[in-house]
Amino acid sequence: MAAGFEKECLNLVKKLGNDKIKLVLELTERNPIPVTPEARAIFDSLHQHNITFALDDFGTGYATYRYLQAFPVDFY
Questions:
Q1: Which DSSP string corresponds to 2-56?
Q2: Name one GO molecular function term (predicted).
């Protein structure tokens, strides 16, 4: 996850208006996200601002199962 990712997402939501957009971020296995407490805190923060998460190609690899356990996934 790139430095400043959380801040950039929250700025976008604030700029466009939280009630006017529905932002869905897609998790893929192509660019794995480390399953760490820090990553979980970022996902929780984004989720609290109505940013949702989707798993790409669910079930095609092992990482998606780890993501299900570690992150607040909304769509498969």
A1: -TTHHHHHHHHHHHH-TTT---EEEE-SSSPPP--HHHHHHHHHHHHTT-EEEET
A2: cyclic-guanylate-specific phosphodiesterase activity
Roughly what angle, to the nearest 10 degrees, separates helices 5-16 and 37-48?
A: 0
Q: Is 23 exposed, middle or buried (0-12, 13-18, 19+ CB in 10 A)?
A: middle
Q: d(Cα 12, Cα 72) in Å, to the nearest integer? A: 20
Single-letter amino acid code for the residue at 63: A
Predicted confidence (pLDDT) per residue in 4-53, tens digit? 989 999 998 888 877 667 888 887 777 777 888 998 899 899 998 889 98
